[in-house]
Amino acid sequence: VKAHRDISPGFGGPALKAYLNAKTAKVNAFLDSYLPEETRAPETLHRAMRYSVFAGGKRIRPIFTVAGAEAVGGCEDRVIPLAAAIELIHAYSLIHDDLPALDDDDYRRGRLSSHKVFGEAIAILAGDALLTKAFELLADRRHFDGVDPALLLDVAKQVGHTAGSTCMVGGQVVDLESEGKEVDLPLLEYIHVNKTGNLIVTSVTSGARLCGANAGHLRRLTRYGECVGLMFQITDDILDVEGARDAMGKEAGADQIRGKATFPGLLGVSESRERAAELTERAIESLQDFGREADPLRALAAYLRDRDR
Ligand code: FPP
Ligand code: MG
User: What's the gap between Cα 61 and its chain centre?
Assistant: First the structure.
């Protein structure tokens, strides 16, 4: 039965745009009310935390969290704090990724990176504080009214695992250690699955879990997240080769200059595009058994394949 294989005509470009804007506004409002004010001491630290959290990120991960919840019949209000916690982790990871000891990037999304504005020490500490804040939030029952505490604890564990040494941080280490070396396709996929893919899988599935997803739902959503996560990275690499500076907020070609292995580097741009298209199809196929509630996830997959930043 392939009734729900295609994105419904009712959820095309304008509807998705409205959806993205609405969810982004919710997440931003929560983050704004949750993070310490810039006037709160130590002011430099709180300014640095807010500088990176409100720096024009696409909020893709929190939107996945909400869309994952909705796909299993849940509602956004239950998962906004979880979605925000995941964005805090993402924000921390980008601050640290840009540091001189890591990628040494002066720009992020068209603005100076954190260490360029606040200095290296504060950038490191702002990252630490954002990561810590994410788990303080997840452990705060006031934000998870009606959620079974044992389930919340297990979701927090999943998020921690995803951010940790065998997933995101581990992927980052292998990425660093592979710079300037010969990297084959399996290793490149390993790096990206761990650096980026797992957090996307967790974004989708953790929201669904808080809204009562069963094992079957989670299997399909995991598959969706895996396909979309890898596709997201392939398009990221393609954009680094071909992207316009204005849309990307930084110079294209950074990966090549740094001697980083990329999908276009290994497969060429056109085969990379084909793989991204295939993964998008597979992502959408894994949602076959879901109803119209999963349309945002279906539309998001296509949107991310076609993105320009
Ligand atoms: C761009 O996301 C970011 C990625 C594709 C993630 C890359 C992963 C890392 C840098 C891991 C870093 C880990 C450590 C431990 C330092 P995006 O396009 O969603 O960014 P946006 O928020 O600007 O939209
Ligand atoms: Mg980087």
Answer: 4
Q: Distance from the CA of 93 to the center of ligand 2, in angstroms?
A: 10
Which protein residues have a CB closer than 5 Å to ligand 2 (ion)?
A: 97, 103
Q: Which ligand gives the minimal distance to the CA of 108?
A: 1
Q: Which DSSP string do the residues of 248-289 spell out, in sequence order?
A: HSS-TTHHHHTT---HHHHH-HHHHHHHHHHHHHHHHHTTTT
| Alpha-carbon gap, residue 79 to 280, rounded angstroms | 25
The tokens 């941080």 sit on which residue?
Answer: 169
Nearest residue (CA) to ligand 1, atom 20: 57
Q: What pLDDT was estimated at residue 249?
A: 60
The finding on whether 57 has its CB within 6 A of some atom of ligand 1 is yes
Asked whether the beta carbons of 241 and 262 are under 8 A apart, the reply is yes
Report the nearest atom of ligand 1 relative to the CA of 103: 10
pTM above 0.90, yes or no: yes
What would the two tokens of residue 175 be?
């990425």
User: What are 229's two structure tokens?
Assistant: 């996560």
**2 — pLDDT class (breaks 50, 70, 90):** very low
Measured by CA distance, the residue closest to atom 14 of ligand 1 is 93
pLDDT tens, position by position, 240-255: 888 755 555 656 667 7
Task: For residue range 21-39, list pLDDT tens digits in order.
Answer: 999 999 999 999 999 999 9
SS3 (DSSP) at 140: coil
Residue 53 to residue 35: CA distance in whole angstroms: 9
Q: Is 44:122 a contact under the CB 8 Å cutoff? A: yes
Q: Which of 178, 169, 180, 89 is nearest to 137 (CA)?
A: 89
Closest ligand 1 atom to 94 CA: 10
- Residue 8: band (very low, low, confident or very high) from pLDDT cuts 50, 70, 90: low
